[in-house]
Design a protein that fits this description.
349 residues; mainly alpha; 13 helices
């Protein structure tokens, strides 16, 4: 006898007489966000100082185009839109993991040091090793983010209130990592410092297909891992005692989720630099829209992609033909959101 799904859910049959429950409102929000993201990406690809008509863009995508239109669309605008979507999804998933682990809406990798630590690794690769190679910068960001995570874990050992210690300890480590970043910039020559500073703002201005391909390959493994973490985190949000009673290995689950969150932030920073506030804002907006119990990863990823696509469109158009680093736009938008969040009486809930 098949039981009826809970209210607001659909049962999706799977092979082997299995099924998965899908939250209806979350599915609707995710579908809507994906449609909005496609529209924003299309606008980004076809408009600007040099506009490409929709019919011409479709012809180029079918392989019938060449010349300036094809170069702009295929080699500049499409990789930029793809990078914005993938980086936004990675940062949003990372933010959802850290907010769930800390049980605090302020528990994002931006505020608790992981993004700053990843940026430190990237700056070491750029300034000390003189590299502009995406793989080497990616390795540096991952090492920096992992070192920050290990330091934060060490500060949280034996803590009874993991969430509070995670945030406070992360902020302290972020301050130290920021000091290291400033020191590295102060000791570099002018040309290298300018390159590093531009990267540190977070920008998609010069993105090409090779780093997008590397990011896509990394996310092929990391995003499914984030979805698995989201499933476990829903149990952990019920409380440690309940989660342990349901068979969740708390220590291993927290460590695995932390490593996945750090890796997601690291590959995003490696691709586009430390773009702020996406990881903070996207999970909270998604929770308010879906009204789903616990962490909902797919809509959160879609929200992050849409926010960064829209932010990058603004970065390209606000002072056209001059293009702003998208990190400055998201920082301005995120600062306004954070101010609103802190003025709410339930902001710590």
């Amino acid at each position: 006898m098949t039981r009826s799904p809970p209210g607001g859910h659909l049962r999706l049959p799977l092979p082997g007489k299995r099924a998965v429950l899908m939250h209806q409102r979350s599915m609707l929000v995710c579908s809507t966000l994906l449609a909005i993201g496609l529209v924003v990406a299309a606008v980004t690809a076809m408009t600007g100082t040099y506009e490409i008509a929709p019919s011409r863009a479709l012809a180029i995508l079918r392989g019938a185009g060449s010349g300036t239109d094809a170069f702009l669309l295929l080699e500049q605008r499409l990789p930029r839109a793809a990078a914005a979507a993938l980086v936004g999804a990675a940062l949003a998933a990372s933010g959802a993991i850290f907010q769930s682990l800390s049980r605090n809406p302020l528990g994002s990798p931006d505020l608790i040091g992981f993004t700053t630590g990843a940026a430190s690794g990237g700056l070491v690769a750029i300034l000390l090793f003189g590299s502009t190679s995406t793989p080497l910068i990616a390795a540096g960001t991952l090492v920096g983010g992992l070192a920050t995570a290990l330091a934060t874990i060490a500060l949280n050992r034996g803590a009874t209130r993991v969430g509070d210690r995670l945030i406070v300890g992360g902020i302290a480590i972020a301050a130290m990592a920021s000091a290291v970043n400033d020191f590295l910039l102060s000791r570099a020559d002018i040309q290298a410092a300018e390159v590093a500073k531009a990267w540190q703002y977070g920008s998609l201005n010069a993105i090409t297909w090779p780093p997008v391909a590397l990011l896509a390959m990394a996310l092929t493994a990391l995003l499914p891992a984030a979805l698995c973490c989201g499933h476990i985190l829903r149990f952990m949000e019920l409380g440690d005692d309940v989660a342990a009673g349901l068979g969740v290995p708390l220590t291993r689950a927290r460590t695995a989720a932390l490593l996945v969150g750090v890796a997601l932030a690291g590959v995003a920073v490696a691709t586009a630099g430390p773009i702020g506030f996406i990881a903070l804002v996207a999970p909270q907006l998604t929770r308010r829209l879906t009204r789903a119990p616990g962490t909902v990863m797919l809509p959160t990823m879609a929200m992050g992609a849409v926010i960064l696509l829209a932010g990058d469109l603004l970065a390209q158009r606000l002072l056209s033909p001059f293009q702003l680093p998208v990190g400055l736009v998201t920082a301005a938008l995120g600062g306004g959101y954070l101010t609103w969040l802190l003025t709410r009486p339930d902001h710590t809930a």
